[in-house]
Amino acid sequence: MKKIVIIGGSAAGPKTAAKAKRMTPENEIELYTQENLISYSACGLPYFIEGTVKNINQLIIRTPEDFEKQGIKVFLEHTAQKILPDKKCVIINGKEVYYDELVLCTGAEPIKPKIKNIDIDGVYFLRRIKDGIAIKEAMHEAKKVVIIGGGFIGVELIEAFVQNGLSVVLVESCSRMMRVFDSEFSDMIKNHILERDGQWVEMHFSQEVEEFISDENGKFTKLITKNGLEIEADFCVIASGVKPNVELARDAGVEIGVTGGIAVDVSMRTNVPNIWAAGDCTQERCLITKRPLYASLGTIANKEGRVAAINLTNCPEVCERFEGILGSAITRYFNYTIALTGISAEDAARIAEKFDIHPISATVVKKDKAGYMPNSENITIKLVADKKTGKLLGAQGIGTGDVNKRINTVTSALQSGLTVEEFLHLDLPYAPPYSSTIDILLTAAYRLNGQIKDKNW
Amino acid sequence: MKKIVIIGGSAAGPKTAAKAKRMTPENEIELYTQENLISYSACGLPYFIEGTVKNINQLIIRTPEDFEKQGIKVFLEHTAQKILPDKKCVIINGKEVYYDELVLCTGAEPIKPKIKNIDIDGVYFLRRIKDGIAIKEAMHEAKKVVIIGGGFIGVELIEAFVQNGLSVVLVESCSRMMRVFDSEFSDMIKNHILERDGQWVEMHFSQEVEEFISDENGKFTKLITKNGLEIEADFCVIASGVKPNVELARDAGVEIGVTGGIAVDVSMRTNVPNIWAAGDCTQERCLITKRPLYASLGTIANKEGRVAAINLTNCPEVCERFEGILGSAITRYFNYTIALTGISAEDAARIAEKFDIHPISATVVKKDKAGYMPNSENITIKLVADKKTGKLLGAQGIGTGDVNKRINTVTSALQSGLTVEEFLHLDLPYAPPYSSTIDILLTAAYRLNGQIKDKNW
Question: Over the stretch B157-198, which tens digit does the pLDDT of each residue have?
């Protein structure tokens, strides 16, 4: 019998606990969290704010009672302060808790940009359930909101606020939004949002926020950027990304990777014996570049929790490996899907010399179904490949039609290192309500293949 | 300069002509067809009958004039009677037409079951534009139709007729419908159709039709099966599959494959010098079993036409290869998607001994999106793999949610011979409107992996 102690209760922690208990009911499992609830879907929060998800409880996947019933001890509002690896012990709420295996699922927290008066009322981050509730309340009393950060959460929040009748101002420090995409996709996404909702939505790029101004009650009234732009609003949400919570780990001698996340091997072990890590606090590996990559996503947290549980209950045997990720991501702006997998052409160009690759790309606009079907929609797909090896490197897609299907299809191809030539005649199921006879993915592959076969380079 | 003669005008023929002309404008290209139009989407016919596609002209992709403008000579209502390979000549409408390269795109025609009085009025096949128009006219004067054959076209026709207020009787000679699927999927599809539309739809299995009965005007009134079942209806559509048109080829010494289709190599060459074939008249190769497979689909015809054009204009160099197909197929019954790729568990079991494989499968029912999203729907996905090698062999999916995306994702995995272990943690893009945190595909892969890792077998 082992005692397994898990720190963190959002996604990876509960997953590790539940899986480990199912595999080895004889083990004692304790899960500690600073919060007053566990096992929730943070990625559903924008849809709760929007009103698509009516009740916050719908985002709670399993309650502490569910875990207790399974024989897992859950400790809410407990803060892990220090790990003493030599004693195999964690100090939690001032008390020593001993472990045979310790799993760090300490998650991530919002990046706090350097803005004067950032801690005033009326300035929100979106990370936890309570943040979602607070923002929704603020929204219901407001007519205008300013969002700092034009990434995935930024786009989801614009949708939520527009849907609720607010005027929205987006302020982005970079020259474009959705920076994991190539520039032309950033522009198309921006243009789509402004074409649809330009009367409610205003965007400012290359604007770094310097200061927040509050009223006599200490509540946010406006922001001022370094360029002197002033934006008044009823409240502000900062969506500038997240950073992994690794202080507890670092302090215990656990290695932190170059991305800032905890370094783990394919079994989810850290460098310190009997200490494992999973979820938003860890660093992943990009399967395309083979380099470290940091991603904070519920789906990855769940996979890593699973792998950690399988391996720590079987150790020293490694029974399941987590090899890495493709950087896949998706969101929507109402009926407009925005998705990618692998690396962009601009990212590929940046690493071209170092990796000795010669990136090429093909962008195709085509109907997602047979053009004569009444609900067929244009979508835009860009495929990126390496001209030297012929290997696919990534795909980006946007549009009101079925983009997701195409990006998903490319994930499998990237996972197996498929070349454009191998991908070229992929036997995708075809019928008029689902695809054109030659799917847009294959049209893009044909164009890439033409570039690869072109001997003049 | 070469003279390229193409026989057949539906999909592969026009594709070959257009691609060859674009690649080598100097070549003379002649396209001959028995029909009075070319280049149309036969797979759109059920949606024309249904009324989803309003105008038959929408199914015509390019007109003869479009081809003439491109410099391709089109000969409508011309029948190729005989090939004289030694003279490099085809007899068409009684005249000798000389070629440097000949491409056979003679397509397929409906299988005519052995039924007494099959040629009476009121009995239809659905293959060509004129068939679609005739069936639509018959439908508008009818209250009840009987369909013979419960495959893809059968299902599409049930939808079309139900949508137009007809009573529909399906008669199937086999004990179940949609036979390329595993039996339990056949049952689920049947049950779904009957649950939704049982008041309009009646199905009879294991019933072989023996005879059609006509009224005094020689028009269909009822059918009688070998078991004595009698079904009255206003008209009858036979959808018992198709067979390749290969008589012209066979007569010229072109090799016919075991499936009945013309045998071609990866460049789309036949065994006879300067004779190529593409589209519904050819035999394909299954990429899973590596065995000959016959498929009649517009998407494959287009791919083969492309490959034939590229290679015949470059020959003897082979510039693009068509390696084979996965047997992928999809259709819908209203909002219910029915799709598969690769081989079914039952097919795998049939070839298990010969191929030394040990088929395993996992079937999962799960929401297609985060369960808390209001429009999430249950879908059913079955993955099939080989326990010995761990390789994925196929996938089947049904449901009112996004089935297509999952099946497409598996096609890439099959194309590259991915194992379950490699597929297990596939980084599919995740957001609540698109997937659950652990996608149904990965849940199925986890279950398969459990079976593979189970040493007790």
Answer: 999 999 999 999 999 999 999 999 999 999 999 999 999 999
Residue B38: how many other CB atoms lie within 10 Å: 26
Closest Cα of chain B to A285: distance in Å?
A: 12
Are the Cβ atoms of A303 and B59 closer than 8 angstroms? no
Pull the structure tokens for residue A243. Answer: 């950073």
- The DSSP output letter for B101 is E
Best residue of A372, A383, A422, A454 to probe chain B, by most B CBs closer than 10 Å: A372
| Contact criterion met (CB < 8 Å) for B415 and A413 | yes
Q: What percent of chain B has pLDDT over 70?
A: 99
In angstroms, the first-to-last Cα distance of chain B is 63
Residue type, position A322, single letter: F
B196 to chain A, minimum CA–CA distance in Å?
Answer: 20
A232 - beta bridge partners? A222
Taking CA–CA distances from A297, the nearest residue in chain B reads: B430
Residues of A in contact with B307 (CB under 8 A): 425
- Token code pair at residue A5: 């102690």
Q: How many CB pairs under 8 A join A and B?
A: 221
List chain B residues with CB under 8 Å of A284.
none
Q: Find the CB nearest B47 among A306, A328, A373.
A: A373
Classify each residue of B367-401 as buried b or exposed e, where b means 16 or more C-beta atoms within 10 Å of its C-beta. bbbbebbeebeebbbbbbbbbeebbbbbbbbbbbb
Q: What is the pTM of this model?
A: 0.96
With residue B261 as reference, give the H or E element that holds it: none
Q: Is A404 left (phi over 0), alpha (psi -120 to 50) or beta?
A: alpha
**Nearest-CA distance A413 → chain B (Å):** 5
**Residue A429: is the preceding peptide bond cis (ω within 30°)?**
no
Reported residue count of chain B is 457
> E strands, B265-358, where?
275-277, 284-285, 292-293, 329-333, 336-342
- Cα A80 to Cα A93: distance, rounded to the nearest angstrom: 7
State ipTM.
0.96
Average per-residue pLDDT in chain B? 97
Is B412 within 8 Å of A430 when comparing Cβ atoms? no
pLDDT of A455 reads 66
Q: With contacts defined as CB-CB under 8 Å, which chain A residues touch B422?
A: 415-416
Å between A222 CA and nearest CA of chain B: 32
The answer to whether the beta carbons of residues B326 and B286 sit under 8 Å apart is yes
Tens of pLDDT along A14-37? 999 999 999 999 999 999 999 999
